[in-house]
Specification:
Blueprint lengths: L5 E5 L3 H13 L3 E5 L2 H10 L4 E4 L10 H5 L7 E5 L17 E4 L3 H12 L1 H11 L5 E5 L3 H14 L4 E5 L2 H10 L4 E5 L7 H11 L8 E6 L3 H5 L7 E6 L3 H17 L3
Parallel strand pairs: 1-2, 1-3, 3-4, 4-5, 6-7, 6-8, 8-9, 9-10
Helix pairs in contact: 4-5, 6-10, 7-8
């Protein structure tokens, strides 16, 4: 049995918003629409909103203000945006949306909302949302390796942002500049070998202490792997490795992280 859900759509693009509303109404949702902050507040005061879908920012709103006004702590908030995930900066301590979906991928948004409609499907929707809006830091000195891994990630997960670093110094600065969800690390990264780099990165960016690290480990360097014994956040892939293997392992790590509630 399908359970009716009320969705609030927040966007200044009236025609596109109305077309999406019509599509969702045809699927059995009750759809409310808003464009301005006062309209959103009024809807939230007078209606029970189960799910909110919003742009990242709108004219007259501050950065991520629509998300915060919709209160992700009370309901799932999905970002349906034209903005690249790498350009989104969240203030520390502020609630984040459940998922980020590109406006070029309207079918993915509809699929996610449809799955969230039924309690039996919510766990599936939650797992799907696990793979939206991730930011991966790729630390590798080989331009060719970075290219192939980044391309493989983009083909399968275009909503992910991949930041690149060619040495330890760049990587530490990038992790400190903006939080990342996972690090792919060549253990022989120039400037600082893997174990030392991970320690420095975690000192400079405390938010990284519990984030997964996928270490690309040269077969002949057992000492590097042994240095991480007892650290459950570090996983290994022996080099040489294919870009598709890297992507599959990243997906597995994100799923495990979600399952244990980290």
């Amino acid at each position: 049995m399908e359970i009716s859900k009320t969705i609030l759509l927040v966007d200044e693009a009236t025609d596109a918003r109305r077309l999406l509303a019509i599509r969702l109404e045809g699927l059995g949702f009750k759809v409310l629409e808003a464009e301005f902050p006062d309209q959103v507040r009024s809807v939230l005061r007078h209606e029970k909103v189960d799910i909110a879908v919003t742009e990242w920012t709108l004219p007259g709103w501050g950065l991520d203000a629509p998300v915060q006004l919709l209160n992700p702590g009370e309901r799932p908030v999905l970002l349906f945006t034209e903005l690249e995930p790498s350009l989104m900066a969240y203030a520390p301590g502020r609630a984040r949306p459940k998922a980020v979906v590109s406006k070029k991928k309207r079918s993915e948004l509809i699929e996610l909302l449809t799955a969230m409609r039924n309690p039996v499907s919510e766990s599936m929707a939650s797992m799907k949302a696990t793979f939206f809006g991730k930011r991966v830091l790729l630390v590798e000195d080989s331009a060719a390796v970075r290219h192939f891994i980044k391309r493989a990630v983009g083909e399968k997960h275009p909503q992910w942002a991949v930041a690149e670093a060619v040495n330890a110094v760049e990587a530490v600065l990038e992790a400190a500049r903006k939080p990342v969800d996972l690090v792919v690390l060549d253990l022989e990264v120039p400037g600082m070998e893997g174990p030392a780099f991970v320690n420095v990165m975690r000192e400079k960016s405390p938010s990284m202490r519990h984030k997964p690290v996928l270490a690309l480990s040269p077969c002949g360097r057992r000492d590097l792997k042994e240095a991480f014994q007892g650290d459950p956040t570090v996983s290994f892939l022996p080099k040489p490795v294919t870009a598709s293997q890297v992507v599959e392992t990243i997906e597995s790590l994100f799923s495990e992280k979600k399952a244990v509630g980290v």
